[in-house]
Amino acid sequence: MFKQIASKVHEVRPLIHCITNYVSANDCANVLLACGASPIMADDVHEVEEITASAQALVLNLGTPNESKFISMLKAGQKANNLGIPVIFDPVGIGASQFRKDLAKTLLKEVSFSVIRGNASEITTLATWQNHSSCIDTNALKRSSYDMLIELAKNLSEKLGSIIVISGEEDIISSPHITYRVFHGHPAMSTITGTGCMLTSLIGAYCGANPTQLLQATLAATLAMGLSGEQAYSKLCQIQGGTGSMHILLIDAISLLDFSKVEGGLNYELYEKLS
Ligand SMILES: Nc1ncnc2c1ncn2[C@@H]1O[C@H](COP(=O)(O)OP(=O)(O)O)[C@@H](O)[C@H]1O
Ligand SMILES: Cc1ncsc1CCOP(=O)(O)O
Ligand SMILES: [Mg+2]
């Protein structure tokens, strides 16, 4: 199934419209090319609706926000919603300023997101804005922090109607009723900037090419990123490279990934609550 989802990206070559930050924009464009998609970064208000209309997915990334980029995000997001194009949101550094929080709150109100991907701190910040009693299960607080994050992802997904991805040492992918845990990746991935943004773009590509299977596409993209991180790190050790090489090796690995050739199999599971 994952092989089929990934192959579809190469077949369809979906155009992915990214309104994103200037730190990782180039990496995201290269990751999209590496997985078989076609990137377009465009954020001027005069063209975003037209570009979104010709795209198969829209990625909104809050990494370097400003007022005019925000207006563009709103317009592009609403256009995508009207046309049924999946919209993916990356709330980068959402806890860092009141400005980012206000922008994200408005986006969540005005745009319907197919997928929201962030690290644990970003998604926890989003969850605290929702109704506490339904979002944070107090029994879950007593269990391990991953159990707690899983409950939080599930509840947030139900509340917002979006697939929630919490990335990190373990990745959580949750719809309201189905939750997966992915155990791939490597700590070296967080020694370079933009790996989260790259994962969000990859999710955009996989969803854009597989719009009727958004949960499976999101899971496949998350597995693809984790596996690529592992393969990049293993090559990095062979060449005794540093973080600059890790950056390049990661993009290499995404372009070379073949799900049918994954040694050791895929390490993920459907989460089932024990209590
Ligand atoms: N300690 C880790 N072990 C394994 N994979 C990791 C680790 N930290 C990050 N990753 C991987 O790096 C990618 C980016 O995740 P993350 O670092 O959470 O995003 P962000 O850059 O937005 O904070 C994901 O594919 C995630 O699985
Ligand atoms: C460092 C930085 N500053 C603004 S956006 C950005 C990149 C963040 O990328 P990621 O969340 O993927 O590490
Ligand atoms: Mg991030």
Automatic annotation (TrEMBL):
Record's catalysed reaction(s): 5-(2-hydroxyethyl)-4-methylthiazole + ATP = 4-methyl-5-(2-phosphooxyethyl)-thiazole + ADP + H(+)
Keyword Amino-acid biosynthesis: no
Record has Metal-binding as a keyword: yes
Pfam families, alphabetized: HK
Cofactor(s) of this protein: Mg(2+)
Coiled coil region boundaries: none
Molecular function per GO: ATP binding; hydroxyethylthiazole kinase activity; magnesium ion binding
Matching InterPro entries: Hyethyz_kinase, Ribokinase-like
Pathway: Cofactor biosynthesis; thiamine diphosphate biosynthesis; 4-methyl-5-(2-phosphoethyl)-thiazole from 5-(2-hydroxyethyl)-4-methylthiazole: step 1/1
Keywords per UniProt: ATP-binding, Kinase, Magnesium, Metal-binding, Nucleotide-binding, Thiamine biosynthesis, Transferase
Binding site for ATP: 117, 167
Catalytic activity, EC: 2.7.1.50
Enzyme class: transferase
One of the protein's GO biological processes: thiamine biosynthetic process
Residues that coordinate or bind substrate: 41, 194
Role according to the record: Catalyzes the phosphorylation of the hydroxyl group of 4-methyl-5-beta-hydroxyethylthiazole (THZ).
Family the entry assigns: Belongs to the Thz kinase family.
NCBIfam families for this protein: PRK09355.1
Designated name of the protein: Hydroxyethylthiazole kinase
